[in-house]
Amino acid sequence: MALPQSTEKSESTSCADRKTTLDLNQLSFQIYTGNDLQQLRADWLALEAEAQGSAYHAYEWCKSWAQHVAASEKATALIVAGYIDEKLHVLLPLALHQCHLAKTARWLGEEIFNQNTGYWSKELLAAPQAHFLRPRLIVALKAWGVDLIHLGNMSFKVEAADNPLVRMDDTTSTNAIYPFELKGPAEEFIKAKRSKAARKKHRSKLNKLQSLGTLTFTNEVTREGASATVDAMIKQREVRQAETGIPTAFALPNYQSFAREAFTDLAKEDSPTQPLIYSLKLDDEIISTCLSLKSGKRIYCYCTSIISGDLMRYSPGELLMQHVIEDMCEEGLEVFDFGLGEERFKLAWAEPEYLKDWIEPLTFKGKLAATLESAKLSSKRKLRNNQSFWQLYRRIRGLFARLQH
User: Fold this and answer.
1) What is the C-alpha separation between 318 and 343, in angstroms, rounded?
2) What is the pTM of this model?
């Protein structure tokens, strides 16, 4: 006897769900070290193309770190790859650090990258058992000899799905990120986002700069233009460091080499993550830079810089930033992400989104190291929120920098 139609549909839907839902019991973790990145390239790029994760874990970006930065940080790339039936469903670019006699697993390049997610397939993120991956990852890393897991700056979400690696009771990260939604057309978006007074101030500074010479906003698409802009960013940050004493992330030659190569290699045709390099020029001199990564419908602002001196009064960095935002609105991108760190200009566009750090000791040595890490993070958070301390810190650093020059 035929079943009622509604029951047939229910049975059919149930069968379809069973076919499309991953069996995570079949997932196996494989761990690759620094010299093995090339073996993963094809699978890595295929998963990266799904854009379910942070642009800071793009293959070319991580490869550049492994080549130029790993040795100076006394770290080894430790790439965790999760496969089901020979298909890569999760990729976590980690690095193994030897510190205080304990081996600590961190996100690869955490010191100079940004927010961290890894890459995940859509099917895995949709699987009901996805949250069970965290304890399985613990087992895999412990078997590799890891004493402490310290994965920082993780968002609660990977795209629209819950992040399988984050728990509510994890440690709150020192910094937040500042993402906001984009919407075209650009002119209407700016009107809705910025007050009349702010728009008037922006036009005034733009007009004053234009009166000093030929002002050009440029999206650098040639190798020569991109290289010149990266070099200008490094130089401007070095000058700023000399003036204020606040260190730049690109002070060392190997970090400079990382930035140059990473942005160059991301421009390869088969890279799903693409570089976005903007400059603001006055009479052909670069007075501001904005270096970003584009992944799917999201733009990640990595770093900016401005020229020192009298031109700072015209806020060339903020002028360039608004131009980039307007361009992204017109291109149809959906999210602009300022990344880590509180800055005044970010608050004009976005609200902070707080991140989490997963800190979990796996051995006795790991417990000792975790105690030190937790104390360090607690101190950082207290200092981060102490405005009086930061004002004094900047004055003292600036004084020492001026005395040295």
Assistant:
1) 11
2) 0.87
